[in-house]
Description:
The chain is mainly alpha-helical. The chain has one domain: de novo design (two linked rop proteins). It is built from 4 helices and no strands. The chain is elongated. The two termini are 29 Å apart. This is Four helix bundle protein. It comes from Wenyingzhuangia fucanilytica. Pfam families: 23S_rRNA_IVP.
Amino acid sequence: MKKNTFEDLIMWQKAHQFVLLVYSITMSFPKEETYGLTSQFRRAATSIAANIAEGYKKKGLKDKVRFFNISHGSLEECRYYIILSKDLGYINDTEKLNNLINETGKLINAYSKSVLNSNS
């Protein structure tokens, strides 16, 4: 019997890919950003996937969607860090980051709507 976990969710899989990409990219950020932008970017990226995972097992629909909303907030925070990183010259090509973040955002929105509509 297959056990359903948050890892089965495509939105979590995309969010996890985003986290791994952020960690990879921020490895080349300047040393002086270790406790600044690098740390903030990584924490916000991790928060996207972590809140999806936490929300997945919540019983109440409103509580579940609240975690997905937090996840989406962290996603928007990362969207800003992509812009900032590019403007500071730390990254040049943002296409893969932006594609993953856009796809993840759409999936979070769709899943949240689906959860809310399941109560109707």
